[in-house]
Amino acid sequence: MFQRDTLNSELSFFQKIKEMDYTLLICIILLSIISLLVMYSTDGGEILFHTKSHFSKLAVFFPMMIFIAFFNIRYWHTFAYLFYLLIILLLLYVSFFGLRSSGSQRWMDLYLFVLQPSELMKIAIILCLAKYYHRIKVENVNSLTSIILVLSIIIIPIIFVISQPDLGTSVLIAMSGLIVLWLGGVKVKYFVYSFITFLISLPFIISFLKPYQKLRILTFLDPDRDPLGAGYQIIQSKIAIGSGGLEGKGFLKGTQSYLDFLPEKHTDFIFTLFSEEFGFIGSVGLLVLYMIIIFRIIRIGTLSRSNFSKLFCFGFAFSIFIYIVVNLSMVLGLLPIVGSPLPIMSYGGSSMLATMIGFGIVLSAKINRKQSIA
Amino acid sequence: MIKENLGIRKSDIINRRMFIIGAAKIIIFTGIVARLFSLQINENKKYLTLSDKNRIREWKLPPTRGNIVDYFGNIIAGNLKVYQLHIIPEQVENFNYLLVRLKTLLNLSEKKIQKIINLKNKLKPWDSIIVSENLSWSQFLKVNNYLYDLVGVKPVMTISRNYPFNEMYTHVLGYVSQPNEEEILENKIVKERFVPGMKIGKLGLEKTLENQLIGTNAIQRYEVNAYGKRINQLEYQKGLQGSKIRLTVDTEVQKLSAQLLSNKAGSISVMDIYTGDILAMYSSPSYDPNLFLFGISQDDWQLIRNNPLKPLINKTLSGLYSPGSTIKPIVALSALENNIINPNFKVKCTGKTELYGQTFHCWKEKGHGFVSLKNAMKQSCDTYFYEIARLLGVDRLNVTAKKFGLGEKVLGEYFDTEKRGLFPNTNWKKNNLGRGWVLGETLITGIGQGYTQTTPLQLCLMTAQIANGGYKIKPKIIVNNDPLNLEDAKNSMELQSLQKPNTRLFNDSRNIKIIQEAMFSSTNEQFGTSYRSRIDDPKYQFAGKTGTSQVKRISKRERELDLKLEQIPYKDRDHALYIAYGPYKNPRYALSIIVEHGGSGSKAAAPMAKELFKLIIDRDELRDKQSNFENINI
User: Fold this and answer.
1) Which of A127, A154, A207, B529 could form a disulfide with B546 if both were Cys (CB 3.0 to 4.6 A apart)?
2) B543 CB contacts (<8 Å, ≥6 apart)?
3) Which of B67, B65, B82, B238 is nearest to B158 (CA)?
4) Residue B393 φ/ψ, nearest 5 degrees
């Protein structure tokens, strides 16, 4: 008992610095630098709006991450439900008063930057469910009430996000939530059954999609059906990546990018530009960097004493993995185009904010790994 | 303890399930790497090509046409640097202000301004609008002076066709202008090399020699962005100028021809009787082909089109005339060749001949009395030729006329507007008019009236073939590699006649000689019809035959009135014709002259021959020297 008490007690500042996970930290710094260079390249080799803005976001969110890291993960456990509810409220706010842009309403103006609450929901849902599965007894995990409860936790934000409409983010939120369910011990057969049900109801779901979403699926199946219209993005993206070759065209020499053939090159298609300029070697290098980050987070999870930390780390690692996979599959033409940013690399404040919060919590979990949470 | 156990169990579940996911992650990542590998390594070439196709665009520039030069290497169709004014809309700060400035600077019309505005709305902002295709030097200077004030305006230098001798060669060269859609599709080479602003030959040699003259496009390779805007030039590939073409024409002779025919409608052709080289081929009046280069103005076009002297018709090749008395050498030759007459055959001319109640008049009302062949030719006695034509018959005459090139195209391969003319025979009339030949028609055919229609160039060729001793020659206007000095040309012509008997146009060379002598007397002996135009100096002395071709039938009343030329309405006046060759002692050149509605051949046409022979023979030596230079460098 004594031992536990000492473990539960707060670590000193220097102990915290000592316990900080430097592998993850260095990887994040590296990724930030790469993202700045790529952003510089999207600006055509000049320090223009996107580079400056991306830099200022990093300058705010990176210290914020460190700050979060020094906070005991216990507080995140304590306020997890509240955080979830807060984001739900923000989603509610956005659905009434949000900013509209290119046909969807998902942003709120915070004067300093425009926040997209659905991005934060990706973290909030993991926190919320991690707390839930941390607290619930193992034998109750598969009870009907529990299943209904966690499903509603997932479905409520998704309803908001789908109605924005934002299919990509809602799928990612669902995936992040479901993975915590999986980790929490929900029976495998439930997953199998719902997957089968999903497949069966797929045509039905498709009939509910908006015309532009259907078009994206059609375009994915055959990009050449409208090469200058719907298929343009994916065709140009494949050309950019494919023409990069082994070594790439060189930094700032991506012709597809600086001649404006790449659409959305700052955001969802940022990997395309990176891949064009740095080639196969660079792309695999970037993937390896992401892999190190993901497996380092998993490692931190396994090192952690508390299940909350474990669940959060594993859930967050998986969600980062899913973002990367969905984004890369999209730009490589393996999935239909769904709006999904590449963590840290893509331009966009909310996504970076959410990711940095996640990293902060993971770092905090590392620092407080020996602590158990009641 | 229980709680603790459960806790351990829970973390076991978490860790186990994490392990499954971790494995799945590695598999999925491997899949993505495999996809990257297939795109970037396996299909790299394909995508690299596609990316180049995206970013590199080629701009073809109009090719530079080959020069056309005369026999002495003077450029008669060349290329000139022209100054153009382009507007690049995206660089313009204030479009309306610019238009107002340009309007006052260049005196642009309201219509032109409207056209520019329309173009601006139609084109992409980086596509240049051509304000003026051909700025004068002073306009160019003016624009350059105010360039600081004309943001977005670009003075451009390009190359355009130019005809330095203006209307002198229009009927030989034709002109170039913007092609229409049909013309682009018609010619594969033009279709391939077409770019806006390119001009193609519309007429004459410019048209027929299009494929040789056209040249190849210069190519500019630009890197462009996704919107098609040029970012930077990657490469400039020079085009090849079209082939240079050297013609047989002599600009000095052509100039004199134009001068002689100024203010008249008519044609002059001059030909080398051995090589068939055409020294001059002028149809009057002509028009300035430079007017067509940038689109002819409505006013200029109406002026040309409505000119009663019909400048648009190439009279040398497409003008059909009754040969009149210029046919007489052929009629006489045919009669001699067919042994109908001998040179001493005489006919009594009383001024008219009666046949089946129809009267056929000689031009000399009182008659010539007894005339021999030579005298008949010399004084152009119609009665004599009525008689020998009657004896000869039109079919035999037709054979001789055909041999000498009447009724056949002369330069058809180069000029698609050339007419073949007509020399009738009995079959022709039956087949085409459905009626039998009438003897009276033979008589008038004998003096070059009736159905016979010839082009001036045919008459020139006919004369040349009489002059060279009766050998067939192939007239040409483009210099080729044939031997060109007099002896060589003569020998090659005679050699060819031995190899190909059909190039010998006579049975007995003495008959040709008789005709030549008769033509000589017509010009150089007293009472000859062109005696007044003779040159006594043997160096220039020439032999010829006048002709006066009736445009309308002369009524009895008019014959009695014996009107002066000025008293007859222009349209009803006779055409004046003259054919000649010289120098008589050692002939080299033949010519034909036609002055439409000029009156009599001896008064209107023959004096021109005198001027021409002086010049042609003076330049003979120069021409011989020039023949040695196959390729003149200009």
Assistant:
1) B529
2) B467, B516, B519, B520, B522, B523, B524, B580, B581, B582, B584
3) B82
4) 85, 150
B367 closest CA partner among B382, B386, B345, B378: B382
pTM of the model: 0.71
d(CA A337, CA B390): 98
Q: What angle do CA A308, A310, A311 make, to 5 degrees?
A: 65
Q: What is the pLDDT of residue B633?
A: 41
Number of A–B residue contacts, CB under 8 Å:
128
Instruction: Write out B466-533 in H/E/C secondary structure.
Output: HHCCCECCCCECECCCCCCCHHHHHHHHHHHHHHCHHHECCCCHHHHHHHHHHHHHHHHCCCCCCHHH
pLDDT confidence of residue A374: 66
Interface of A with B in 159-188 (CB under 8 A): 179, 182-185
Strands B176-177 and B543-549, bridge-based pairing: unpaired
Distances from the Cα of B552 to the Cα of B450, B570, B593, B625, angstroms = 11, 12, 20, 47
SS3 content of chain B, % helix, strand, coil (to 5): 45, 20, 35
Q: Which residue of A has its CA nearest to B230?
A: A259
- CA of A94 to nearest chain B CA: how many angstroms apart? 34
Cβ–Cβ below 8 Å for A138 and B44: no
Q: Within 13 A of B317's CA, how many CA atoms are on the CB side?
A: 23
Distance CA A316, CA B521 (A): 120
**ipTM score for this prediction:** 0.91
Helix (H) or strand (E) holding B300: helix B298-305
d(CA B563, CA B27): 114
pLDDT of residue A51: 93
Non-local CB neighbours of B71 within 8 Å, separated by 6+ positions: B246, B247, B248, B249, B250, B277, B279, B479, B623, B626
CB contact under 8 A, A259 and B224: yes
Distance from CA of A22 to the nearest CA of B (A): 22
Kindly tell me if the per-residue pLDDT of B331 is higher than 90: yes
Which residues of chain B does A291 touch, with a Cβ-Cβ cutoff of 8 Å? 29
A-chain residues near B36 (CB < 8 A): 241, 275, 280, 283-284, 287, 332
Show residues of chain A in contact with B223, CB under 8 Å.
255, 259
Chain B residues within an 8 Å CB radius of A298: 18, 22
- Give the integer Cα–Cα distance in Å for B476 and B169: 16
pLDDT in tens, A75-131: 999 999 999 999 999 999 998 888 887 778 888 888 778 899 999 999 999 999 999
Q: Does residue B121 carry a pLDDT above 80? A: yes
Hey, which residues 66-125 in chain A have their CB within 8 Å of chain B?
A: none
Contact B48 A242 (CB under 8 A): yes
**Domain parsing of chain A, residue ranges:** 12-367
> Using an 8 Å Cβ cutoff, are B190 and B184 in contact?
yes
Q: What is chain B's length?
A: 634
Query: 3-state DSSP: chain A helix, strand, coil percent, rounded to 5?
Result: 75, 5, 25
- Please judge whether B40 and A244 are an interchain contact, meaning their C-beta atoms are less than 8 angstroms apart: yes
CA distance from start to end of chain B: 112
**A287 vs B6, B32, B224: nearest CB:** B32
- pLDDT at A218 > cutoff 70: yes
**Considering only CA atoms, which of B532, B553, B552, B538 is closest in space to residue B601?**
B532
A314/B35 Cβ within 8 A: no
Is the separation of the CB atoms in B313 and B413 below 8 Å? no
Query: CB of A319 within 8 Å of any CB in chain B?
Result: no
Per residue in B203-253, pLDDT (tens digit) is 999 999 999 999 999 888 888 888 777 788 888 888 899 999 999 999 999
- CA B425 to CA B432: how far, in whole Å? 11
